[in-house]
């Protein structure tokens, strides 16, 4: 289902954009993704009422839901984070067809850059080259003591996540809680973000998928796109200022259906389904 943006009618049709991609007029697609592209892989998002993570934290008696990812709270109470870690990082999940679509964009040399807010690593698993993406909120690939920053072994971390237990620094003089290298509220984004964000201004198409655009600075990326450059939102609901520009197109529905519709318009559907099957 395609709907014109709620505030301004878009003078751009779906097929018009697809034709501009296939005829080579659009070659630098910048993408911003959020938790909504991984929900069909089995990882709930954060804010969808009823199913999002933040609606399910009552038993953990947090002062407020986001405390679970707040560094100031983690330093004295790391237990709640590890109580939900396994659900956020169950391991060996299959990427969704939305992740496969991003890999297909890269394969066709159309992916200028991908900013993901997700920490699940499914973009890389789907085949997106790591030099074409930034985990703006970090990822689970490594972990360090939150206090002395000593490295911590991967296998011990995997055991801790599986058991839902807090891993502690192996340095006897420290013993503080270990944290995966994900960006918590109160921490800075990777230094690379500052430099990379200018790529949004280089885009000749911006694709925003599966995010509520509620958390800065990622939520500001679509605003960096030059006026007149088309922006597509594929999301269950409206987000940010998407839909306020004449060249915006809001596709309200699931990411997986949205990328299938886009692939059909591009003539890439079979290639996409095959790429996803082999991911
Ligand atoms: N298809 C399309 N949209 C979806 C789907 C889906 N299958 N599932 C969920 N959504 C939409 C929701 O409607 C919502 O607008 O994806 C969005 C997810 O929003 P959030 O739960 O807020 O997740 P996200 O935007 O990624 O959050 C950003 O907040 O908690 C922090 O660090 C965390 O990276 C996260 C950041």
Mind sketching the topology for me?
Elements: H1 14-22, E1 29-33, H2 71-74, H3 79-88, H4 97-107, E2 111-116, H5 122-126, E3 133-135, E4 138-145, H6 154-163, E5 178-182, H7 192-196, E6 205-209, E7 231-235, E8 248-252, H8 255-266, H9 269-278
Parallel strand pairs: 1-2, 1-6, 2-3, 6-7, 7-8
Antiparallel strand pairs: 4-5
Helix pairs in contact: 3-6, 4-9
The structure holds adenosine-5-diphosphoribose (APR).
Please outline what is shown here:
This protein is of the alpha/beta class and 279 residues long. The chain contains 9 helices and 8 strands.
Within the largest sheet, what's the order of strands?
3-2-1-6-7-8
Order of helices and strands: HEHHHEHEEHEHEEEHH
Number of strands: 8
Overall SS class:
alpha/beta
Helical fraction equals 25-40%
Spans with pLDDT under 50 lasting ≥5 residues? 1-11
Enzyme class: transferase
GO molecular function: histone deacetylase activity, NAD-dependent; NAD+ binding; zinc ion binding
Organism: Penicillium atrosanguineum
Keywords: Metal-binding, NAD, Transferase, Zinc
């Amino acid at each position: 289902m395609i709907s014109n943006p709620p505030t301004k009618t878009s003078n751009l049709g779906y097929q018009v954009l697809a034709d501009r991609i296939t005829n080579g007029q659009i070659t630098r697609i910048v993408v911003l993704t959020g938790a909504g592209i991984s929900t069909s892989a089995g990882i709930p998002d954060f804010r969808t009422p009823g199913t999002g993570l933040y609606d399910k934290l009552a038993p953990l008696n947090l002062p407020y839901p986001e405390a679970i990812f707040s560094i100031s709270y983690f330093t004295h109470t790391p237990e709640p984070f590890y109580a939900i870690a396994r659900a956020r990082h169950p391991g060996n999940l299959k990427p969704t067809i939305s992740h496969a679509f991003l890999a297909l964009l890269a394969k066709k040399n159309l992916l200028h850059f991908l900013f993901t807010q997700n920490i699940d690593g499914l973009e890389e698993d789907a085949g997106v080259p790591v030099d074409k993406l930034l985990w703006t909120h970090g990822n689970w690939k490594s972990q360090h003591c939150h206090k002395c920053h000593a490295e911590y072994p991967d296998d011990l971390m995997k055991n801790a996540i599986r058991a839902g237990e807090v891993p502690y620094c192996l340095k006897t003089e420290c013993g503080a809680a270990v944290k995966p290298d994900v960006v918590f509220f109160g921490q800075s984004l990777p230094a690379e973000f500052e430099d990379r964000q200018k790529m949004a201004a280089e885009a000749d198409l911006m694709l925003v998928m599966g995010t509520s655009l509620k958390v800065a600075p990622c939520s500001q990326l679509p605003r960096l796109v030059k006026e007149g450059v088309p922006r597509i939102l594929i999301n269950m609901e409206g987000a940010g200022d998407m839909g306020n520009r004449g060249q915006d197109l809001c596709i309200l529905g699931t990411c997986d259906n949205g990328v299938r519709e886009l692939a059909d318009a591009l003539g890439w559907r079979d290639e996409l389904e095959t790429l996803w099957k082999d991911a």
